[in-house]
Amino acid sequence: MYLKFKYLHVYGSLRWQMVNKQLKETGSDGRITCPKNCGSHYKSKSGLYNHLKYECGIDPQFKCNYCGKSFARHSNMRRHMLVHLPGSVKKEAEDDNCNPLWFYNTDSQ
Predict the structure, then answer these.
(1) Domain span at residue 34?
(2) pTM here?
(3) What are φ and ψ of residue 70, in 5° steps?
(4) Which neighbouring-strand residues pair with 63?
(5) CA distance 55 to 57
(6) What secondary structure, in 3-state letters, does the chain show?
(7) CA 28, CA 95: separation in Å to the nearest integer?
(8) Does 37 lie in the same domain as 7?
């Protein structure tokens, strides 16, 4: 049982070897540059991890069941799917060809 966890630990540390090297090579502003040279910069290791897992060189993995639009992140797809709900303010505006800028609530101050 110990060996199983020992190897998982080794695998996890090898997986982060590239990321940790990049952390040591951060710029003077402290931001982390993507090691795949795509030009993206992140303030945290978790931001870089999510970028490498979902975005960098990867086709969008999540697809809307209603219209087929693809998204890199699940949370963005879920937010998009709200437009397909009956009675959705955004859906009604799209049907009326309204200007989408009025969706922002300025009365919440």
Answers:
(1) 2-54
(2) 0.48
(3) -100, 150
(4) 70
(5) 6
(6) CHHHHHHHHHHHHHHCHHHHHHHHCCCCCCCEECCCCCCCEECCHHHHHHHHHHCCCCCCCEECCCCCCEECCHHHHHHHHHHHCCCCHHHHHHHCCCCHHHHCCCCCC
(7) 49
(8) yes
pLDDT in tens, 8-44: 455 556 556 666 665 555 555 678 888 888 888 888 8
Q: What is the pLDDT of residues 80-91, one digit of tens each?
A: 988 888 876 555
Under 8 Å between Cβ of 80 and 69 = yes
Same domain, 45 and 12: yes
| Tokens 């998982």 belong to residue | 8
Rounded CA gap, 80 and 74, in Å? 10
Return d(Cα 4, Cα 14) in angstroms, integer. 16
Residues 16 and 42: their CA atoms lie apart, in Å, by: 16
109 in any annotated domain: no
